[in-house]
């Protein structure tokens, strides 16, 4: 008759103390990356299940962010947690270490989640490789990606994704400025590796093309979604011999950076420069002037991701592998016809 492996057996095979194994089991972050991966590998190989220590009374789902120091992440998380409460499921929030670190999203890491009884994983704006997606499935975990960064979800059935209609949103933002009379419109977008940023740029360019406005490469920049990125891109655009009369930003955070760069140059908003953001985070109403932006249903995206993941955990196939929720333009005070001053 086989016996269950104990904490002591895991520690001995991994060459660490029982205290270190306990820290890994309980998700503590004060264990080195290589040590953590080695312990996780032994846990998975032995099929160890903790019998003491921290226990999750309710089913558990991991929510993984690349970073959660922004309002977008907060609103998505609110939807995930709300749906979890409705279903009696706990959400454990984690984020990738800087540079991803050793063992991040490794096969052993996925196996350790499964060994702790987690139902699955929701990743938010986090880059994953096809190999990592397969490793998650091999560990028996469900996986849903919100705004997948590095994988085209329409080309694979291995990844279920939830996003806003990024292409349509980019088009809505630029069409609004074109209707106001702007023709020289800058684009301050997200990082080159981001699929949502790429789709928003394509929507922007499609809107220009539909009105016969030619693309001008000096007006299209793709740096990042951070406030500081917005400042840098706006500085570059506003230094042009013929600066834009309006700028579409890749998200609300970078739009705030565009606003700051414009103010430093003494520009009046929206008289001298119109600005459109993307997301409609809480900050859009806190700015002066209030920010015109494209609203993503971020809370509902989080709710849908949790509900879909629980369906996967029960062995049910989703209606589709790629859910897109509609965006809508919210017009506030940061946009006006060009040359109003």
UniProtKB/TrEMBL annotation:
<dbReference type="InterPro" id="IPR000843">
    <property type="entry name" value="HTH_LacI"/>
</dbReference>
<dbReference type="InterPro" id="IPR046335">
    <property type="entry name" value="LacI/GalR-like_sensor"/>
</dbReference>
<protein>
    <submittedName>
        <fullName>LacI family DNA-binding transcriptional regulator</fullName>
    </submittedName>
</protein>
<dbReference type="GO" id="GO:0003677">
    <property type="term" value="F:DNA binding"/>
</dbReference>
<dbReference type="Pfam" id="PF00356">
    <property type="entry name" value="LacI"/>
</dbReference>
<feature type="domain" description="HTH lacI-type">
    <location>
        <begin position="5"/>
        <end position="58"/>
    </location>
</feature>
<keyword id="KW-0804">Transcription</keyword>
<keyword id="KW-0238">DNA-binding</keyword>
<dbReference type="InterPro" id="IPR010982">
    <property type="entry name" value="Lambda_DNA-bd_dom_sf"/>
</dbReference>
<dbReference type="Pfam" id="PF13377">
    <property type="entry name" value="Peripla_BP_3"/>
</dbReference>
<keyword id="KW-0805">Transcription regulation</keyword>
<dbReference type="InterPro" id="IPR028082">
    <property type="entry name" value="Peripla_BP_I"/>
</dbReference>
């Amino acid at each position: 008759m086989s016996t269950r492996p104990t904490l002591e057996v895991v520690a001995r095979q991994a060459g660490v103390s029982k205290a270190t194994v306990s820290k890994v089991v309980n998700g503590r972050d004060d264990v080195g990356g290589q040590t953590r991966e080695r312990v996780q590998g032994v846990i998975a190989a032995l099929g160890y299940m903790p019998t003491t220590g921290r226990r999750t009374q309710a089913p558990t789902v991991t929510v993984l962010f690349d970073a959660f120091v922004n309002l977008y992440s907060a609103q998505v998380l609110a939807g995930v947690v709300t749906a979890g409460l409705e279903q009696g499921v706990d959400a454990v929030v984690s984020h990738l270490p800087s540079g991803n670190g050793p063992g991040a999203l490794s096969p052993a890491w996925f196996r350790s989640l499964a060994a702790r009884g987690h139902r699955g994983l929701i990743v938010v704006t986090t880059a994953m490789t096809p190999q990592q997606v397969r490793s998650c499935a091999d560990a028996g975990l469900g996986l849903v990606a919100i705004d997948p960064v590095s994988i085209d979800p329409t080309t694979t059935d291995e990844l279920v994704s939830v996003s806003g209609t990024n292409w349509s949103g980019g088009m809505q933002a630029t069409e609004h400025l074109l209707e106001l009379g702007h023709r020289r419109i800058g684009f301050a977008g997200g990082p080159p590796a981001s699929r949502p940023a790429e789709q928003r740029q394509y929507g922007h360019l499609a809107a220009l093309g539909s009105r016969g406005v030619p693309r001008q490469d000096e007006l299209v920049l793709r740096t990042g979604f951070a406030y500081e990125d917005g400042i840098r891109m706006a500085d570059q655009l506003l230094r042009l011999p013929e600066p834009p009369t309006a700028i579409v930003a890749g998200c609300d955070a970078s739009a705030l950076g565009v606003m700051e760069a414009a103010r430093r140059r003494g520009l009046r908003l929206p008289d001298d420069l119109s600005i459109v953001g993307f997301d409609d985070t809480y900050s859009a109403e806190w700015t002066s002037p209030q920010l015109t932006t494209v609203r993503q249903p971020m809370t509902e995206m989080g709710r849908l991701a949790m509900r879909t993941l629980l369906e996967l955990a029960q062995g049910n196939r989703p209606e589709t592998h790629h859910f897109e929720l509609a965006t809508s333009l919210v017009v506030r005070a940061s946009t006006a016809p060009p040359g109003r001053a």
